[in-house]
Specification:
Length: 419
């Protein structure tokens, strides 16, 4: 809950918006918020109450703004200095919406008419430019959106990161696409500003409660959670600086192998007690009739599975050599569960004196002195954690459907609350 609810009016168009704002928000920040709502140039924007301009350096409370006040937003006449000067930077922590609404980076006044909403120059682009770089070097929506339309790889990257935005821009003219982009960016900026303001108000409230009562349980819990998050963030930043690779996905270890001339991809798992194959693979390689059902049972570990029995000798070909293995055969997995075609467990790894050389990326067999390279991501299917056969377009379409479903669910929830 915020301290003030004020009505903001654009003096030139008559458009108005009623917003909840914290009393400790500065007039400068409020002006930047207004510029984002009404599409005005923040450099010349002034806020007025009862005909008097509010000083940008003051908070709304210090400037005399009260709950229910009407605040007018008006562009002041531009000065005509002998030499054009760049506008003063926003105060630290300010919220600058000008780049979203027609204002480009600071340039000489003669380059474009203030508040005209026109880009000051052509888009900045170089071959292979990434989406983030395109946004950073082209703050004006017209320049950025024109790059999206002209370069397919930028549009594809946008589809990957923001599928809903990509869908909204499809088939639109340049002017309409610019308008859509501008509106969506302003919505996000306003929401972020209000969220920041609410967090600041709550922190001040908790400070006051703690000052009145050092043992206030709610205040202690609030600041305790802030301290906990600070420690977690500190570890996160340290980790990202020293070993960021830990945030990547770890590819499991697979090697190419054959059983009865049938190629398979064997999962090398030194944490598994025994070597196993699926019933499907046993049938495929022609060994299902050799299952000794006296060794049936249940395999327990991270999950559980039914063991149909054991095949005592399986000639496993890895590289140019054959390695006899004793293999337990697992029943078909439950619906929705992932099947493990073949797993080379610790029992056979020890029996054949294998070494997992992660530095060289090979499975080394001491007997025969043979080295088998682990498979790369491109060689493994998606069920094995790889990218072989991955359809980016299909994945994007599924993501778009999921996000549209979530949006509809949120909209239905809002309607129920309003009714």
């Amino acid at each position: 809950m915020t301290d003030l609810t004020i009505t903001l009016v654009d003096a030139s168009s008559g458009q108005s918006e009623t917003l909840p704002l914290p009393s400790n928000m500065s007039v400068r920040e409020a002006a930047e918020l207004v510029s984002g709502i009404f599409g005005l140039s923040v450099d010349r924007l002034g806020l007025f109450k009862d005909g008097k301009r509010l000083l940008p350096s003051l908070s709304l409370k210090a400037a005399g703004v009260k709950d229910g006040d009407l605040i007018a937003a008006q562009l002041q006449r531009p000065q005509q200095p002998a030499r054009a000067a760049a506008p003063a930077p926003a105060a630290s922590g300010g919220l600058d919406f000008s780049s979203l609404l027609g204002g480009a980076a600071p340039v000489p006044a003669a380059a474009s008419a203030p508040g005209s909403g026109k880009p000051t120059g052509p888009p900045v682009y170089y071959p292979g430019m990434a989406l983030d770089d395109a946004m950073q070097h082209n703050p004006h929506p017209h320049n950025f959106v024109s790059l999206l339309i002209q370069h397919d790889h930028l549009m594809k990257e946008l589809r990957y990161h923001q599928p809903q935005m990509h869908q909204k821009l499809q088939g639109q003219s340049l002017d309409k696409a610019v308008q859509i982009w501008r509106e969506e960016m302003v919505k996000g900026s306003i929401a972020g500003a209000l969220k920041h303001a609410e967090a600041s108000r709550k922190r001040n409230d908790m400070n006051e409660r703690l000052a009145k009562n050092p043992n206030d349980p709610a205040a202690k819990e609030y600041f305790g959670e802030i301290e906990r998050k600070r420690k977690v963030d500190s570890q996160y930043y340290q980790m990202m600086e020293q070993y960021p690779e830990s945030m990547g996905r770890v590819l499991m270890l697979y090697v190419e192998a054959k059983i009865n001339s049938h190629p398979i991809q064997a999962f090398v798992d030194s944490g598994a007690q025994m070597t196993i194959m699926s019933k499907k693979v046993a049938t495929m390689v022609g060994l299902a009739d050799l299952i000794d059902t006296r060794f049936a049972g249940v395999a327990a570990g991270v999950g559980t599975g039914k063991i149909l029995g054991k095949i005592h000798i399986v000639q496993l070909q890895i590289g140019s050599s054959y390695y006899p293995c004793s293999v337990s055969v697992m029943d078909d997995p439950a619906p929705g569960a992932t099947e493990m075609p073949f797993l080379l467990g610790l029992d056979m790894l020890k029996r054949h004196l294998c070494q997992l050389d992660l530095r060289s990326g090979v499975l080394r067999f001491t007997v025969g002195n043979e080295e088998i390279p682990f498979l790369h991501e491109k060689d493994l299917s998606q069920t094995q954690g790889g990218t072989k056969g991955f359809d980016a377009q299909k994945a994007n379409e599924e993501l778009e459907k999921l996000m549209a479903k979530e949006d509809k669910k949120d909209a239905d929830g809002d309607q129920e609350m309003s009714s």
